TrEMBL record:
<feature type="binding site">
    <location>
        <begin position="144"/>
        <end position="150"/>
    </location>
    <ligand>
        <name>ATP</name>
    </ligand>
</feature>
<dbReference type="InterPro" id="IPR040686">
    <property type="entry name" value="PurK_C"/>
</dbReference>
<feature type="binding site">
    <location>
        <position position="139"/>
    </location>
    <ligand>
        <name>ATP</name>
    </ligand>
</feature>
<feature type="domain" description="ATP-grasp">
    <location>
        <begin position="104"/>
        <end position="290"/>
    </location>
</feature>
<dbReference type="Pfam" id="PF22660">
    <property type="entry name" value="RS_preATP-grasp-like"/>
</dbReference>
<dbReference type="InterPro" id="IPR005875">
    <property type="entry name" value="PurK"/>
</dbReference>
<keyword id="KW-0067">ATP-binding</keyword>
<protein>
    <recommendedName>
        <fullName>N5-carboxyaminoimidazole ribonucleotide synthase</fullName>
        <ecNumber>6.3.4.18</ecNumber>
    </recommendedName>
</protein>
<dbReference type="InterPro" id="IPR016185">
    <property type="entry name" value="PreATP-grasp_dom_sf"/>
</dbReference>
<comment type="similarity">
    <text>Belongs to the PurK/PurT family.</text>
</comment>
<dbReference type="InterPro" id="IPR011761">
    <property type="entry name" value="ATP-grasp"/>
</dbReference>
<dbReference type="InterPro" id="IPR013815">
    <property type="entry name" value="ATP_grasp_subdomain_1"/>
</dbReference>
<dbReference type="InterPro" id="IPR003135">
    <property type="entry name" value="ATP-grasp_carboxylate-amine"/>
</dbReference>
<feature type="binding site">
    <location>
        <position position="205"/>
    </location>
    <ligand>
        <name>ATP</name>
    </ligand>
</feature>
<dbReference type="Pfam" id="PF02222">
    <property type="entry name" value="ATP-grasp"/>
</dbReference>
<dbReference type="InterPro" id="IPR011054">
    <property type="entry name" value="Rudment_hybrid_motif"/>
</dbReference>
<comment type="subunit">
    <text>Homodimer.</text>
</comment>
Length: 380
């Protein structure tokens, strides 16, 4: 029986482990947190730091292949493991995704348009920034997620203040673009360079956090979807990527497609695939990692995913409560996924709800009902 390793014990690791187990693999999770969502379902949980030598040695000795479930795993750990066992995605690819400066350079090199941007490394750089980038969004080059590590700035004075506030770490300033909508594409690439894409997903963010994903993307033309898929493939090919890669895009007011960022792993916006596709993104990651055949996944029905953040676990008075799961589960086509996190916190990803039905209209109607039941804002 082959054994797979995962660096990181969050919900993405948990769902990867569950998919791998369905295909008969043993799974080992490395995460410093003794109480992690993936560690709880894995065959073995190695509770240690990602750079712990003994832990890495143990992993490389027990695992036939190793992957990561979060992009901020130290690239050094991946490198060290790769000397002894098969690792995908490679440290070189994860490094690009960890650093917005390298990431944007890779987009440009791949011939895919991104937002006009400048790199800021020291306070003096604030004066060098072209006027055209303001108003803009200042983002730390590393470690940001869910809109953390970002500041919207209207002018140079605000830019200087934001750069100081973010700690004068390396940043990119992006022009604030007029977004019509956001979408993302999951591409999987095999060891021998074959690529397959999932259907394009349309995403809605609230407060910088993904809230809703809808497939098929209701407001994206077939031509634009094809362009997004081709761009995602070019980005994956260009770095010799192996595994599932998620590429986020903006569609601007004038209809232009602009790449935003990417994640070297299955992605929150791809959770719809768990109930609506014949191969989901986690199984695809297992296939790519282990050299099993990749095949274009088939969308079996329209689907809407609602993210379940910790906010739902609190009432208006701030008292903890349990959301009405029985009510939600009574809705036709609703499939609930909870990550087994003991403690709810506002903004914390606790689970997601996939809703599918025979038509996009019926899916929306069911999703509206679910949103009402849970106390989520109504879908537009
Ligand atoms: P994630 O959790 O997706 O990794 P993140 O913290 O890395 O998030 P981004 O994806 O860079 O952040 O940005 C978060 C959101 O902010 C985007 O989904 C988009 O809604 C908005 N945004 C980011 N960059 C721009 C831009 N240049 N112009 C307009 N809106 C933007
Ligand atoms: Mg990001
Ligand atoms: Mg993002």
């Amino acid at each position: 029986q082959a054994t797979l390793g995962v660096l990181g014990g969050g919900q993405l690791g948990r769902m990867f482990v569950q998919a791998a187990q369905s295909l008969g693999y043993r799974c080992v999770v490395l995460d410093p947190d003794a109480d992690s969502p993936a560690g709880a379902v894995a065959h073995q949980h190695v509770c240690a730091d990602y750079l712990d030598d003994a832990a890495l040695q143990q992993l490389s000795q027990t695992c036939d292949a190793i992957t990561t479930e979060f992009e901020n795993v130290p690239a050094k750990a991946l490198q060290q493991l790769a000397a002894h066992t098969w690792v995908a995605p490679a440290a070189s690819c994860v490094s690009i995704c960890q650093d917005r400066v390298a990431e944007k350079a890779h987009f440009v090199a791949s011939g895919v348009a991104c937002a006009p941007y400048a790199v800021l490394r020291q306070p003096n750089d604030v004066q060098q920034v072209p006027d055209a980038l303001l108003p803009g969004i200042l983002k730390t080059a590393r470690m940001g997620y869910d809109g953390k590590g970002q500041r919207r700035v209207r002018d140079r004075a605000e830019l200087a203040a934001a750069f100081a506030e973010l700690g004068q770490v390396d940043c990119v300033l992006e022009q604030l673009l007029p977004l019509q909508l956001e979408l993302s594409v999951l591409v999987a690439r095999s060891r021998n360079g074959q690529t397959v894409c999932f259907p394009v997903q349309q995403n809605l963010h609230r407060d910088g956090i993904l809230a809703v994903t809808e497939v098929p993307a209701p407001q994206v033309s077939a031509a634009l979807q094809a362009q997004a898929r081709e761009s995602a493939v070019a980005i994956a090919q260009g770095m010799g990527y192996v595994g599932v890669l998620c590429v986020e895009f903006f569609v601007l007011g004038d209809g232009a497609l602009v790449v935003n960022e990417m994640a070297p792993r299955p992605h929150n916006s791809g959770h719809y695939s768990m109930d609506a596709c014949d191969i989901d993104q986690f199984e695809m990651q297992v296939r790519a990692l282990t050299g099993l055949p990749l095949r274009e996944p088939r969308l079996q029905s329209p689907v809407l995913m609602l993210n379940l953040l910790g906010d739902l676990w609190f009432d208006a008075q701030g008292q903890e409560r349990t959301p009405d799961w029985a009510g939600v589960l009574a809705l036709p086509g609703a499939q609930l996924h909870l990550y087994g996190k003991a403690q709810a916190r506002p903004g914390r990803k606790m689970g997601h709800l996939n809703i599918s039905a025979a038509s996009a209209e019926a899916t929306r109607a069911s999703a509206q009902a679910a949103a009402r039941l849970l106390g989520l804002p109504p879908l537009e």
